[in-house]
Amino acid sequence: MVDVSQHELVPDHSIVDEDVLDDVLEEYNIKKTDLPKIKRTDPATPDEAEVGDVIKIVRNSRTTDQAVVYRLVVS
Amino acid sequence: MSAQQTPKSISSISFGLMDPEEYRDMSATKVITADTYDDDGFPIDMGLMDPRLGVIDPGLECKTCGKHSGSCNGHFGHIELAAPVIHVGFNKLIRRLLRGTCRECSRLCLDEREREEFEDRLERSEELGKDVNDVTKAAIRQARKKDRCPFCGEPQYDIKHEKPTTYYEVQDVLSSEYSQRIVAAMEPDEEAGRERTTPSELADETGIDPSRVQEIISGEFRPRQDDRRAIESALDVDLTEEDENKLMPSDIRDWFEDIPDEDVEVLGMKPARSRPEWMILTVLPVPPVTARPSITLDNGQRSEDDLTHKLVDIIRINQRFMENREAGAPQLIIEDLWELLQYHVTTFMDNEISGTPPARHRSGRPLKTLSQRLKGKEGRFRGSLSGKRVNFSARTVISPDPTLSLNEVGVPDRVAKEMTQTMNVNERNLDNARRYVANGPEAHPGANYVKRPDGRRLKVTEKNCEELAEKVEPGWEVSRHMIDGDIIIFNRQPSLHRMSIMAHEVVVMPYKTFRLNTTVCPPYNADFDGDEMNMHALQNEEARAEARVLMRVQEQILSPRFGENIIGAIQDHISGTYLLTHTNPEFNETQALDLLRATRIDELPPESGVDDDGTPYWTGRDIFSELLPDDLDLTFTSEAGDDVIIEEGQLVEGTIDDSAVGGFGGEIVDIITKEYSNTRARIFVNEIAALAMRSIMHFGFSIGIDDESVPEAAEAQITEAIDNAYDRVEELIETYERGELESLPGRTVDETLEMKIMQTLGKARDSAGDIAGDHFDDDNPAVVMAESGARGSMLNLTQMAGCVGQQAVRGERINRGYEDRTLSHFKQNDLSSDAHGFVEASYRSGLNPKEFFFHAMGGREGLVDTAVRTSKSGYLQRRLINALSELEAQYDGTVRDTSDNIVQFEFGEDGTSPVQVSSNEETPVDVEEIADSVLDAEFESESIKSEFLGERTEPTNLSEHTDDWWMAEGDD
């Protein structure tokens, strides 16, 4: 099977720690459910991620080098 | 808050069902009479026009609130329905509830575990903002699977729904021919290897009394349910048939009343606000008369609203229903009346339900009832609330005026006299205000109305204007005519991007059209073949200020779509600058001044050189350079292919064409906008357009049929080239017919042949074009336009002078028409080029009839394609806009929707606006901004920084008139 997370076009997906997550949510003044969503079954979600976890995605950007996005894992 | 005032903010809205008690509480009167007015023309008490329901006739007083027509909003009444009826709007929900709950105990047919699961899912769905309906639907589906109620054990039957409002329970009942079926099953059957069953055996097996078995077999006794089951299992037969048991609305209402609150919640309803039984109507609210006003016709007859007609029907049937029931009419009659009542209540709410004939007016026109008032393009939402007709707007044909600035718009005087602006009179504008009023409504800078401080509005007329002018004092308001310099909003449909609506400054002009500078045609996508545009006069200071600062045309020079300028020189402007700079011609002093006379340059620079006989001359490039900022440095490659070099605001070398000053990314316009200012760019574009018009008029520019003719020798060459191609095509066909043509990978031989023929003929056209092109001079107008990028291309020129080439339908040579041939002029299966739409002629020489026909085929396809494309993309755009319209960039940099869900963490992932970022591919980052921030960190205060860097005065963002002053201050 192809592991898409190794593909060069797939940006880095990592699980956000609980305490870091609180900072993120506070920064944007939101609840976890206001984040964009990602499916548990999405090939890019890390295997150990569970429903309710938050994934941090770091993309390369032509204009800002790195663009960070958070997503909530849903079933 | 008085009822007059509109509430300032709405903190929350909740939707739910309405309690019949609430209908009664808010009702001003019970309505029992189906008539409206009595013989004397007075509304009947407790009739449909009861004065307690509100007033529509001016002068009368509302019996409920005491207010007069206009201020009284009207009051609801109610009709007590003789029997409950179903609300059509909820027929789906009713069906779901019937299917999901027990017919006996009304509880939701889910066990504890399932309930919890669905409660959880419901909660999560709500949190994530998903569609709650998906969960409740799944819950019903689960509950429907149960054969028996998990609580009371009652068997559940399937519910059949006959649209729109009839529900049946599908039950298994004992078949009427049960005895025959039993006897048949007791007979021996050799095929199935079954022996005869005697009645006594049957009695033994089922445990029924033998005499009773006899009675059952003879059909004298109907077996009870458990007996039936026993016989069925003993004999292996089915003794039942399906029977539909109609559920009356009253049954459904009783059923729903028993559904416990907890169960209602699992189905996504809030029982405190909406109990399911409220979906069955027992009381019908009667809309106030203000919602269904009756109108008096010319002949004095009253004509009632459609809703009133419908209500009359409902009350009549209701009355009849009650009378019949009291008289003890047979059940059949009652049921008929009940159905009729249901029909009228249904069509009262929605008259376009499939399966029910629409209720009609006496004239045969279907009635417009409640949901028809709301639905669709002309309905309340799309027609009256999201879009409505506006005041202070004008629409007329547009025409070009190159003398206007691109910020301006020429407004016809008769429009200016109608669209007024409000002047708040004070000491300083008192004299002006009086002058406007004194001019009256007919003379141009006049006034139409004045408003006294006490709020009284007076119309200014020819008769009273002089008199009124003297009365105007500070504190009055004067509605004066629009004058030069006022700001307005200008728009052309379809409004596909933000540049479709821009603010312009008014220039009042004679005649009847709006006048535009031609450089603003691309953003509006306007031309002058009869296009009309809309103008909106702004009515308060905030709007005017906002329009001036944000919406003025010069602020829209850069397009957010691609980050480059969308406004710039077009068409003849480009031909003009090309002629001026391409060969760098020389001009004497008079000519040079004439070229520059429509710009702000009124002194010539030092001469470029001196003639043989001693007269000084100025070159085209030097004249062009006068318009550039003094410190501009720039190099790029032009459309014409040469390198353009600008040093210190001087055009040293190169041709100025589309890629330099054109719209859609002309380098010079782009750079000036980004590195200087929008104001500087506007001045530049205006002056380029003026200079270009002067220069194209100096040289003269026209095109005629002779400009596309080529010498005979060239014509012969072209014919030869095409003949050669014909020969090659013939060869190809021969090889194919011999079966020797080798197919290309992945294609059949036929496809290969087609491809090769297309290729050969394509080459033939190109070489014809090349030959023709070689014989055109560089000053040929068509060549100038194609080279400079002003209009047309070399391909267009090839088709005019050389050969039109292969016509195609669906990307292939023309293959349709008759059996095995395109036209009856050809032999069948003729593969040659002229039988499949190759047009050898040029547009100049003219096409022969066969060629003309093929050309028309290709042309038609193009037309159909554009028509289909615009409608498809228009719909796609509408849907996209509707889907994205609620997204908003927040102050914290995120993009969120209205319920605070984050869509982007940083606008566009980088938080930059496309118009602020450099459009350069290699350096997508705004270096200037970064340099600025470094400098800011370096210097302690603004004053030290400006001391070090020197100052550049920035223009104010006010008006054309103040900018002239700024340009005069500046040094370029």
Automatic annotation (TrEMBL), chain A:
Q: Kindly list the GO CC terms recorded for this protein.
A: cytoplasm; DNA-directed RNA polymerase complex
Mind listing the GO biological process terms from this record?
transcription by RNA polymerase II; transcription elongation by RNA polymerase I; tRNA transcription by RNA polymerase III
The keyword Lipid metabolism appears for this protein: no
The residue ranges of the RNA polymerase subunit H/Rpb5 C-terminal domain are 2-73
Entries under InterPro entries matching the protein: Arch_Rpo5/euc_Rpb5 (IPR014381), RNA_pol_subH/Rpb5_C (IPR000783), RPB5-like_sf (IPR035913)
Q: What is its main location?
A: cytoplasm
- One GO MF term attached to the UniProt entry: DNA-directed RNA polymerase activity
Localization, per the record, is:
Cytoplasm
Q: Which residues form a coiled coil?
A: none
Write down the EC number.
2.7.7.6
- Keywords attached to this entry: Cytoplasm, DNA-directed RNA polymerase, Nucleotidyltransferase, Transcription, Transferase
List the Pfam families hit by this protein, alphabetically. Answer: RNA_pol_Rpb5_C
> What is the reaction catalyzed?
RNA(n) + a ribonucleoside 5'-triphosphate = RNA(n+1) + diphosphate
Q: How does it assemble?
A: Part of the RNA polymerase complex.
| UniProt function note | DNA-dependent RNA polymerase (RNAP) catalyzes the transcription of DNA into RNA using the four ribonucleoside triphosphates as substrates.
Family the UniProt entry places it in: Belongs to the archaeal Rpo5/eukaryotic RPB5 RNA polymerase subunit family.
* Record-linked PANTHER family: DNA-DIRECTED RNA POLYMERASES I, II, AND III SUBUNIT RPABC1 (PTHR10535:SF0)
Output the NCBIfam families linked to this UniProt entry.
PRK09570.1
Record protein name field: DNA-directed RNA polymerase subunit Rpo5
Print the organism lineage.
Archaea, Methanobacteriati, Methanobacteriota, Stenosarchaea group, Halobacteria
**Name of the coding gene:** rpo5
